[in-house]
From TrEMBL:
UniProt cross-references to SMART domains, sorted A to Z: FHA (SM00240)
Location of the FHA domain: 23-79
PANTHER family named in the record: NUCLEAR INHIBITOR OF PROTEIN PHOSPHATASE-1 (PTHR23308)
Pfam families (UniProt xref): FHA
Name of the protein in its database record: FHA domain-containing protein
Length: 118
């Protein structure tokens, strides 16, 4: 399961579970993740969860900015196109900070063992 965790002063304020499909983030009441902040655009960003074509048991997560006024960032890099999210990425929507948690990716990282070639 993947989660987008909203942080306020590095403390978890909200958790949003991400399922297959897409969701919108913004100030508008129709957004799946609604942020009550005037710096956030009505329809600010879109998060998509799609099955990996080679490993369908895994979802891949993508974030896009929807031409927002104050920008969408992954690890402080402003999005100019759709970008893939990775476990522990820090997402910023205007001045609101989130952490992306992907339990399956974290588990895969813990169990992966790379054998150096000679």
């Amino acid at each position: 399961m993947a989660t987008l965790v909203q942080l306020v002063d590095d403390v978890v304020a909200n958790k949003f579970e991400i399922r297959e499909g897409s969701l919108t983030i913004g100030r508008h009441p129709n957004c799946n993740i609604q942020i009550q902040d005037s710096a956030v655009s009505g329809n600010h960003a879109k998060l998509e969860a799609k099955r990996n074509e080679h490993f369908p048991q895994f979802l891949e997560y993508f974030l896009s900015d929807l031409d927002s006024t104050n920008g969408t960032y992954i690890n402080e890099k402003k999005l100019t196109k759709r970008e893939r999210l990775r476990h522990n990425d820090v997402v910023r929507i205007a001045w609101n900070t989130f952490k992306f948690i992907d339990d399956k990716e974290a588990e895969l990282e813990r169990t992966t063992h790379i054998i150096p070639s000679n």
